[in-house]
Design goal:
Keywords: DNA-binding, Iron, Transcription, Transcription regulation. Its main location: cytoplasm. This protein is α+β, with helices and mostly antiparallel strands. The protein is 41% helix and 17% strand. The strands form two sheets. Strands 3-8-4-5-6-7 form a six-stranded antiparallel β-sheet. A two-stranded antiparallel sheet has the order 1-2. The longest helix is centred in the middle third of the chain and has 25 residues. The radius of gyration is 19 Å and the shape is globular.
């Protein structure tokens, strides 16, 4: 069974491949993502390759092998089921459940994960809107949506997913109802600047810097004739 460190690397590679549409993941990206040095990441890529978990080309990055993807998806499933359970049953906030799930994800069995899924009614997404792999490690197909920065002024957008790794950012977004399944009205979009949205029930608008808005994904709401609302 892979070590927890190897599992962390495989999950990180999977998440970066997902973010960048299957592109090879470079050591510099992994180093930044996991907060390690570039030489450490390079050494681990060699270890992952020697164990058959990735296909690695120096200077060109790595992609998961079939076995590496299986290990990564199992960990992703554990993590997202734990987030869903901790939020639903113990009242964890959107902003702090990620770190707790990170601590637990390596230590539950497939049987326990199946029990969590059954207790929760086989959810297809976690509290941040990310898809939960099935017990056979298939990822439910669903639109990922677009980053908020891609929408036009006046559009109504349903939030599908928010990035789950920045606790302070999640606290900020949650306090302003910029969370999955919430409808937002795009009030203004400044090129390379602020994006202003209005959540439901709020008298005041919320201004999001472009680098924050890029971490929120949504889909445009359309009326019955296919026109953007």
């Amino acid at each position: 069974m892979p070590s927890t460190v190897i599992e962390d690397y495989l999950k990180a590679i999977y998440e970066l491949q997902t973010e960048y549409n299957g592109a090879r993941v470079r050591t510099s990206q992994i180093a930044d993502y996991l907060g390690v040095t570039a030489p450490t990441a390079t050494s681990m890529f060699s270890t992952l390759e020697s164990n058959g978990f990735v296909e690695y080309e120096k200077y060109n990055g790595a992609v998961l092998s079939e076995e590496g993807e299986r290990v990564a998806l199992r960990l992703v499933r554990n993590h997202r089921l734990l987030e869903t359970y901790l939020t639903a049953e113990f009242g964890y906030r959107l902003s702090d459940v990620h770190d707790e799930a990170d601590r637990l994800e390596h230590h539950i069995s497939d049987r326990f994960a199946a029990c969590l899924a059954d207790e929760l009614g086989d959810p297809t997404t976690d509290p941040h809107g990310a898809p939960i792999p099935t017990s056979s490690l298939d990822v439910p197909e669903r639109p990922r949506g677009e980053k908020l920065s891609a929408f036009d002024e006046g559009e109504t957008v349903v939030v599908l997913e928010v990035d789950d790794r920045d606790e302070e950012l999640l606290e900020y977004l949650s306090s302003r109802q910029v969370v999955p399944e919430t409808e937002l009205t795009i009030e203004s979009v400044a090129p390379f600047g602020m994006i202003t949205v209005r959540p439901p029930g709020h008298d005041d608008s919320v201004s999001l810097p472009d680098d924050v808005a890029r971490l929120v994904r949504g889909t445009s709401v359309m009326d019955s004739d296919g026109t953007h609302i």
